[in-house]
## 1
Amino acid sequence: MLAYLFGPDSYRRQRYLREQLIAKYSAKYPQGSVGTFDLTEEGVLEKLQNFSGGGLFAKTSLAIVYHPEEGEKEFVKFLKEIALDETVSVIVVADKKLTKEFAFLYDGKEKQFENLSGADFLKFIKAEAKARDLVVSDAQIKAIGAAYDGDTWGAMTEIERVAAGGAVIQHRAQVNDFDLLRQFASARDLPRKLGLLMQLLEYSDAAKTFNLLGAFVYAGDKIRMADYDIAIKSGKLEYADALLDFTLA
């Protein structure tokens, strides 16, 4: 089975992946194997092929593949070969609509996640806040929606902050993300590090902060970031939770 999720709204895309696909697969196949593969990493396609080949005791497997455009012809060939294999499911995840080489993925069941705006955006973040038991007023939702229009990660991060007692920021300030990230990555004092994290999450969404942070850490921290990345992409962890754990460790 092949599934295809694409579009720039990584918040809704990741939630759908976690709740509608991974959770249902795990419930149906509790002994099944779930693997996450990023084709920007060297040698990953071979690992994906080995994973999908199964083992002596593996009955089913679910592979989640990011940055499919990096796999080129070999990945396209793999997908076409695996499409009819009932023991293997592959979920292809992309930020943008893929090129014509991937046309076979458009079977009417693909899911697109474009950025929401205006009334649709307000409706979504209000429903999401309610589902997560975050207590905020309609006025606060409206103000946050105006400040973060289309930025779901940013809006939900702000809603969490406001629900915890923070004041609504009416206008997002322009800050130097790279300077803050550089300071955050090198900070050793916990109160300072927490303060920098709050600034980062205040003015930028958690997904962007997490992905950029990888360029500012070294040695063991890079390994930790890779572990967080796997947990996030397999639906076990949220970006904000990973950043907080990184800060407190």
## 2
Amino acid sequence: MEIAELKTVTDKIISNFVNNLGLNGERYVSSNACLMAFDKLGPIPGLFHSAESPELKSLVEKLDISQKHKDYILSEGLILLNKKYRNSIDDSELLVTCVHERFHANRMILAQVPSKATETIDPVFYDQGRFIRNSTEFEDKYMDPNQDILLGSIDDSKANVAPYQDLSKNELEDLYFANDKVGEKMNIQYKIDEALVELMAGIAYGLYIGKFKDIMDGVDYTSKHYSGDDLRSMSNIILRHNDLDLFKWMIDPLTYQNNDIHYDFFSHYINDEDKNDVKTLFESEEIMPDDDEMDRIALETRYK
């Protein structure tokens, strides 16, 4: 299946799924016409590079195309799909992968976020029992609000942030690397997000081919028949709440985060009855690498 046909078919799959959520599917698929291409990705089925990201810049610099086309790709972002699926007899895995990456791409936003304190220190770290911003400088950056931004309560008060500005680089690094609370939280966010997006992509395809009568039917099927503990646990949570709010959050994160880019919707959504499934999800080994690691593997594979 070539890119043009893939775009047409996944438009229909995604639009149908979003309509079944009670949202406007046609408007959703037209809101972000992210570029797609086949590439050699090794073990990775697909990935999405945000606009102007370092990974995308590294890739585009090596392409033998005009600067005009390079600038266009950098401004729009890029979905890469494993070329091993290109001439497959069964298109199901390609379609599910493409839908998965397009859900990621449609969430890309331009946000004003704190700049890194140094190249090795992120703008938020964990100190004295709370997450705290350690930088007063800001930059505009294309980001995924569910995977690239720390969700939760972050102390950004001037009085508490100011003392960190006078610390040396070594002192900041000592504080930053004293624990890995930020990394642990981001890894949990990643697992939640990937489980939800993969569940959505599989159900969207099932709806398209008539396997499921509605979205909740697909969630129920996954809970009963899927062997992986990540999607099964997430399905159990959704069935227990008997609503589709987590999927709607994936489609429209900022609305469900009360227009607060740091609001942790999932933590406010779950309850005590969900704790065993949440624990299983957080400890799941189904999804291991984070986005940076996936990008690194893909880029190393491409340019060997």
## 3
Amino acid sequence: MAVGRLRSRVSLSGVLLAAVLAAAGVAEFRLHWVESLLGAYLASTNAERPESGLIWEQGRRTQSALSVVEQLAGDREAQQRRARNAASLGELLALLAPGQAVMLSAEHFRELYQKLPPALAHELLSPFELLRLAGEGRWSRTYLERSSDGLMIYLLEPGNHVLRQFRLSDAPLALAARRSEGVERTLEQIAAFRGRIYPAERFFAALSELGEEERRGVLPQPERLLGVAAQIVRVGLSDEALGGFVELGFEIRTPSGPRVLSLPGQDWAVWRLRARMEGRREAGGPSSPLSPADARGP
């Protein structure tokens, strides 16, 4: 009798448990209450849990990669903007790393071309050829790509067809870019001019004895010197030719002290001028480019 009652109770408990489990299963299927409770618990404890695990690590890597990409894109855009605003081809050359490029309008490139020393500009592309291309109306943009030793320049039609392409080496361009309103030092303080410094009067006297083509070779931009609001006292000649050009240094005296203005000249013309100045020295001058009095300056 007792055994029967026990079996009856066990059967009833089993039925009740099965009914409860079945009801919970139906409720979970319809209401997803277990997931909701678990989600609420995880949300409430989210701030206290450590950021660890595969998902967190992948999220951090993705965020870090996005930040790097955004920074690179921003840096590239800033560099492109500076390149498009460059005031000279030398400045543009300094802004671009090898393999980088920039697109300029035809008008902007013509402006930069006009700022080149005439000898260098003519060597790059005849101004008459540039005028012809501009007059035809087909040249719309200019693509400039920095190579390891200069600039590759492509004149493009609207459909990006190449009208002309040419290369400008960085040696003469860098020399032209070194022109400035004057560095605050003397010619002796610039290694390139040591031992080849002459009084200004000897330089200009020898220059006047050359032919017009030779004078233009020595000073492709004489107007740069005419704009100097100070007396030129000495001239230095570099002994290093870069891409067919040689650096000339003109020392001027200002109230704040000596300054040196640098300009490029064509090497063949500068060598002829130097030979003429050395001939003047040998004819009745000191045993070095400058006498002691010349070296001190006025």
## 4
Amino acid sequence: MFSAFFLIILITLFSSACSGSDPAITDARWRLTAFRDTHSGVTGEYLGLAVLAVDDDGLDDLESISLISDEHELYWQASVEDWVVRQIRQQSWIVLEKLAVPDNVVPRGAYRIILRDYSGAQAESSFSVTASPELPESFPSLLPSEGTGGDIVLDTPRSESILMIRSEGGVLLGSFTLRKGLNSRISILANEQIRSQARELYLYEQGSAGRHSILAGPWSAEDYLFPD
């Protein structure tokens, strides 16, 4: 009898130790980005998602994030290979930078987020995409730099854009604020990695609440950073 009682205690303790902690979603932010592909001429939009997740077993215990639109019968699932973790104000956010959608149009309405860990436990949250369905009338662009003394020329309906420089493999090498009009290349080309690896240029503009963020590109780095 004593042996059986002792065995029950051991099983209970072992089960408690192995049960782990359930994940939780404490915040979620979405971003709608309008894009123009300068190679294909395609214009559309995509959805980005950032999730502030808590798991006492650590973020390494998280297995997947699912995003579901029941109304439009859309489903995405991402694993650790598909997301990046960004530190924002000493908090670790799980970021899905680009969720592709049919016909490059993000359906408006309610979405559910389901976060799962390796034990099978899950947490759920929701949000609604409410931004205007109208895409921006114009996108920022780079203009030919002939006769400008080696400057980069930005054309945008706003006052500035962020120039993002990527390698052939898509790695972000650096980002710089460009003002509308002429911009010097000196500070950009001071970076050795950019000089040796830059291949494509993109322009990005952050959207305010209820408005699209904007992404345009690519442009050839050789044409705009190394025209000589």
